[in-house]
Amino acid sequence: MVTIKDVEVYPVSDLATAKASPWASVSIIVKVTTSDGQVGYGEAVPTLRVNQVIKAIEEVRRLVIGKDPFRVSYIFREWYKHDFYISRSFESATAYSSVDIALHDILGKYYGAPVYQLIGGLINDKVKVYANGWYSDCVTPEDFAKRAKEVVSMGFKAMKFDPFGPYFDSMDKAGLEEAVERVRAVREAVGKDVDILIEVHGRFNVNTAVQMVRAMEPFEPLFIEEPIHPDLNMEGLSKVKNATGVRIATGERIISIEEALQLIERGLVDVLQPDITNALGFTGMSRIRALTEAYGIELAPHNAFGPIQHAATLQFDASSFNILIQESFYEFWPQWKRDIIGDAFKLNEGYHTVPSKPGLGVTVNERLLDELRFTGMEPFHEEEPVWVIKGTWRRYGS
Ligand SMILES: O=C(O)[C@H](O)[C@@H](O)[C@H](O)[C@H](O)CO
Ligand SMILES: [Mg+2]
């Protein structure tokens, strides 16, 4: 019988570029090897958790070693049984997710099939992506407009941005006006045919969020994301949802189908954004997808970290019919992140093509994984929270 022989973790970074995107300054790449020498790759969430997540992967490692790599659902159930706190532990969920992704990569390689063949078969051979990470140091509406035009000229048909400067919890009148002017500038710069997506990063209390979504509605955003603090505050989300006709998106922090259900069953979310690196890999994402299908809502998978996540998310999207759009930081990454997978993706008229090669469909540069090995703690900014696009935690004139 083929068994899982090892699970290795490669935290990788390049200090020269680490401060530009602190939530993803390190990529946590996971390599699973089988007893007959097959190799698969996964990825886990960094975002000020690198060292905890590496430890959590070590726990998953000792459970899966010696087990049959083909029994992915069984292995998940075993971990669920052992880890008393998995339903509450982000670290455990992302650790497990990374191994699940790697096991699917391995399975695909054994069967000579891309992962999408294993989870339903091909529906989309290309996926519409929206740009994120494009607006570093943008503060004035003119800054945003200029950069947004560049994003369109790169070929994007959609882009997401957070226009809320340094506001958190609440926002005064001046703050709301500044945000509105930034959104207006982007809408005018890109025209009506390019989608704009408004990222709130879970900043606001309910009252502020209600006021904000109403002010943003005239600019016809494709969706407004995480308008309130992300604590599954159902009553609050319901107030925000009822205040506007704009699609409300959320879900990048959920770690289970049960959390997805809480959001979905009360009609509080129009677009769910599960992330394959924390929503329990292909196994968890497939279960969540079934729920979204049943409730007729759309998927826009969160994809903010690194190259294996990017490849895995595209495989998932390829077999989903209710994909609205997928996030992409790919074009704005430092080159080392792209080089890990031989710069496998090219933007083509706003879409990324899904690889049809076995497994995740990308070849990992192992030499680079060794060269870029990172130890220590991630960069930390006193002023800008880890999730902020660099240089945007500012008001005009400050
Ligand atoms: O939707 C997203 O992508 C997430 O909210 C984050 O992962 C951010 O991308 C990151 O904090 C930079 O803004
Ligand atoms: Mg987000």
TrEMBL record:
Keywords: Lyase, Magnesium, Metal-binding. Residues 141-247 form the Mandelate racemase/muconate lactonizing enzyme C-terminal domain. One of its GO terms (molecular function) is metal ion binding. One of its GO terms (biological process) is amino acid catabolic process. The keyword Metal-binding applies. The keyword Metal-binding applies. SMART domains: MR_MLE (SM00922). It is an enzyme of class 4 (lyase). Its EC number is 4.2.1.39. InterPro entries: DgoD-like, Enolase-like_C_sf, Enolase-like_N, Enolase_C-like, Mandel_Rmase/mucon_lact_enz_CS, Mandelate_racemase_C, Mandelate_racemase_N_dom. Signal peptide: none annotated. Gene3D superfamilies: Enolase-like C-terminal domain, Enolase-like, N-terminal domain. It catalyses: D-gluconate = 2-dehydro-3-deoxy-D-gluconate + H2O. Belongs to the mandelate racemase/muconate lactonizing enzyme family. GaD subfamily. PANTHER family: D-GALACTONATE DEHYDRATASE, D-GALACTONATE DEHYDRATASE-RELATED. This is gluconate dehydratase. It comes from Caldivirga maquilingensis (strain ATCC 700844 / DSM 13496 / JCM 10307 / IC-167).
